Amino acid sequence: MNEELKMLGAVNTNFINCHGLPDKKHYTSVYDIYLMLNELSKYDKFTEITSLDSYTARFKDKTGRDVTKVYESTDKY
């Protein structure tokens, strides 16, 4: 991920893990977040999901069980 970000020009970001859980060595800048969102906006599925009031994700957990999780938008704009 860090290499992909560098290709976007996001040179003030570093991720330590791939799952997104907190780590003291993660860091980013507002400009790098802009670069990431700008790139993501090119993907129809991303813009479709982010325009919804809620999104239901279905996946298998690490034991192979089916999981359904509903994510509610907190975006008030």
SSE layout and pairing:
Elements: H1 2-8, H2 30-40, H3 44-50, E1 54-60, E2 66-72
Antiparallel strand pairs: 1-2
Describe this structure in words.
Helices cover 32% and strands 18% of the residues. With 77 residues, the protein is of the alpha+beta class. Strands 1-2 form a two-stranded antiparallel ribbon. A hairpin with a 5-residue loop joins strand 1 (54-60) and strand 2. The protein is globular. The two termini are 29 Å apart.
**Secondary-structure element order, as H and E?**
HHHEE
Spatial order of strands in the largest sheet: 1-2
Strand content: 15-25%
What's the total count of β strands?
Answer: 2
**Count of helices?**
3
Q: Whole-number radius of gyration?
A: 15 Å
- Main sheet record: 2 strands, antiparallel
Residue stretches low in confidence (pLDDT < 50, at least 5 long) are none
Terminal-residue CA separation:
29 Å
Query: Mean pLDDT, as a whole number?
Result: 93
